[in-house]
Amino acid sequence: MNKNPAALLCVLALTACASGTSSSWYRETSSADQAERDRIQCERQARINSPGTSTPSYRGINAGGGSGVSDGLANAERQSGMANDCMRAKGYSLR
């Protein structure tokens, strides 16, 4: 059985948890719609630029010696940090 579905499930669960928080991105000169568009753009860019996530691996359970779940969690954390850095670079702060 391939561990990639488990990693994907963990990433989706983390994303759902993160999006359910009460904090939101704020920039004085931006509407809520613009902030949402910028957030989506930053998240998309983070997925593209995050190493090891561009193509799925179908090598099997023990291929490469890494855990699919822990790799997925590490990638999700890395992507989240990259997206947050992108939003801060655009002048947003969390409220």
From TrEMBL:
<protein>
    <recommendedName>
        <fullName>Lipoprotein</fullName>
    </recommendedName>
</protein>
<keyword id="KW-0732">Signal</keyword>
<feature type="signal peptide">
    <location>
        <begin position="1"/>
        <end position="18"/>
    </location>
</feature>
<feature type="region of interest" description="Disordered">
    <location>
        <begin position="44"/>
        <end position="75"/>
    </location>
</feature>
<feature type="compositionally biased region" description="Polar residues">
    <location>
        <begin position="47"/>
        <end position="57"/>
    </location>
</feature>
